[in-house]
């Protein structure tokens, strides 16, 4: 297994999604907020203009979001799994079975900022991923959860 990269591990797809999101925020989203502020300014007295204050607050939130995405982009280190490995690693898609419930799940192990349980993306820092990394098909790992320990068997890596 390779050493941990300096910076924030991210998949190539995650990096492209981050760049696209940043482009959207810096372009159309900024222009939309500027237009809202301009329209609100034309409504009169700024001290009592709720639309103006809301738009300015939204602008502040947007700029913070942009700064956070820019920092993530600067820290991003693309780590790819070529799929040829027979062990669970960052970027791998792994199918596991929970021994207690019998439920099978398939997850891709991704960086923490890419994680999205609804789409099957599991943070590499999550207890499940930490337990799975380094396992091979057929291995059973122990995952420590708030409800106690659970056994999961690695069915496939793909």
Q: Could you give the topology of this structure?
A:
Blueprint (H helix, E strand, L loop, with lengths): L7 E3 L1 H30 L8 H26 E3 L14 E6 L5 E7 L10 E3 L3 H6 L7 E6 L2 E10 L1
Parallel strand pairs: 1-2, 4-5
Antiparallel strand pairs: 3-4, 3-7, 6-7
Helix pairs in contact: 1-2
Features:
single chain, 158 residues, alpha/beta, Helix Hairpins, Chitinase A, domain 3, 2 domains, five-stranded mixed sheet, two-stranded parallel ribbon, 7 strands, 39% helix, 24% strand, elongated, disordered N terminus
How would you describe the overall organization of this protein?
The protein is an alpha/beta fold. It has two domains: 8-78, Helix Hairpins (Orthogonal Bundle); 93-157, Transcription elongation factor, GreA/GreB, C-terminal domain (Chitinase A, domain 3), CATH 3.10.50. The chain has three helices and seven strands, in the order E-H-H-E-E-E-E-H-E-E. The chain has helices at residues 12-41, 50-75, 127-132; strands at residues 8-10, 76-78, 93-98, 104-110, 121-123, 140-145, 148-157. The strands form two sheets. A five-stranded mixed beta sheet has the order 5-4-3-7-6. Strand 6 (140-145) and strand 7 form a beta hairpin. It starts with 7 loop residues before the first strand and ends with a strand.
Radius of gyration: 22 Å
Beta-strand segment tally: 7
Give the total of domains. 2
Mean pLDDT value: 88
Gross geometry: elongated
Tell me the series of helices and strands, N- to C-terminal: EHHEEEEHEE
* N-end to C-end Cα span: 17 Å
Strand order of the largest sheet: 5-4-3-7-6
Q: Please give the share of residues in helix.
A: 25-40%
Which CATH class of the largest domain applies here?
Mainly Alpha
Low-confidence stretches: 1-5
């Amino acid at each position: 297994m390779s050493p941990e990269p300096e910076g924030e591990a991210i998949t190539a797809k995650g990096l492209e999604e981050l760049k696209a999101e940043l482009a959207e925020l810096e372009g159309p989203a900024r222009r939309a907020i500027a237009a809202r502020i301009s329209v609100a300014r034309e409504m009169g007295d700024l001290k009592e203009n709720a639309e103006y204050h809301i738009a300015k607050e939204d602008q502040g939130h947007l700029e913070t979001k942009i700064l956070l995405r820019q920092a993530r982009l600067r820290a991003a280190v693309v780590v790819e799994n070529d799929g040829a490995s027979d062990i669970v690693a960052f970027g791998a898609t792994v199918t596991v079975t929970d021994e207690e419930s019998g439920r099978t799940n398939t997850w891709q192990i991704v960086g923490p900022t890419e994680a999205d349980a609804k789409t099957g993306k599991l943070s590499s820092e999550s207890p499940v991923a930490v337990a799975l990394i380094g396992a091979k098909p057929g291995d059973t790992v122990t995952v420590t959860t708030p409800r106690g320990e659970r056994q999961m068997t690695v069915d496939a890596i793909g």
